[in-house]
Give the backbone structure.
Amino acid sequence: MQYAKYGKDGPEVSRLGFGAMRLPLRKENNISKVNFTRTVAIMHQAMQAGLNFIDTAHTYHDGVSEAAIGRALKSWKGHRIYTQTKSPWFHDEPTDYFKKLLVRAVENLGVDAIDYLLCHAVTMDVFKDRGRRFLKLTDWAMNRGLIRNRGFSSHDTPENVKKLIDTGEFSVMLLSYNWYKPEMTDTITYGASKGMGVAIMNPVGGGLLSPTTPEILHLLRGSKSGPETALRYVLATPGVTLALSGMNTAEQVEENTRVAGRKTPMTAKQRRTMVQRLQKIKKRTKNQCTGCGYCTPCPNGVDIPRNFLLLEQAKLFGLIDHAKAKFAKLRQAKNGDKSALACVECGECLPKCPNNVPIIEQLQETAELLAE
Ligand code: SF4
Ligand code: SF4
């Protein structure tokens, strides 16, 4: 495992962090619940491989993610693990609401103090409206020893993220970035030049970039898989401290820790070649969906990110048969049709998308391409 400093005064963290947004599940009375046993086993496997950083949020699995991490930390006897969680300031609530969530997070994680508290999915507009209250809350929490540092996560534009950096109030940031969506490249370098630690979410595009196809293997000579290509691209980006990955299987942990163990994720020449090849592929697609899921739930049951994933797999990688088969499964889902065909064009999802994806048009395109 390789390590890097998380911000100019920060600790050395592993270049692979554990993203705890989607943990392994189990069924109880037909209800999906976080599988604590499986979660602890996977996290310990990653920690044994040298991982020392876990990222979560108060809202992930309705707070259960923090509790599951707490379970893993409690039974871990090895090196120090750094924790990062996020406060949901996209809700306009009184400060006491956030204080309670924070105190509960400290209890659930079972730590003396949370290493990094981020303002979750903040935009410049939200920061202007109530960012000062977040700063006050974090000052209060630091004085009480509940947190050690503050930062932000954001899906705002690169320009607005630069403005957030320029406030000088944050020591770290978490951004969505991958080879398919490289718009944040300059912003990442800019943040790092200001001494900020930079963590990356969605390095594999929410699964979009995980297929191991000839097209993807062609992007980076020597890479053995889609996830390897994606992780190496992110880790080779100047300014990136670490990439977060939501790992659910032992194989994923093995592969990702192997990749994060490379001293040089990619040479300058490999990167130039990859960028040139990408420019050719990008001409074939317009979709900017990161699979974040903020547009869900759809009142008519459409699984929007899943449909877009299939659209991209078909268009970008030529996996038409695979995408059609998966689309048919979405149509026959147990709880009703989740495919693009179930969209009634109500528009409810549109303002929720941080990337301004033209959801309705793209769902129409998905149905035209994939419905038999
Ligand atoms: S526009 Fe379509 S996908 Fe979006 S919320 Fe309405 S029915 Fe669902
Ligand atoms: S359409 Fe937008 S909100 Fe929905 S998953 Fe994609 S990026 Fe996220």
Remarks:
- The mean pLDDT is 94.
- DSSP finds 13 helices and twelve strands in the chain.
- The two ends are 46 Å apart (CA to CA).
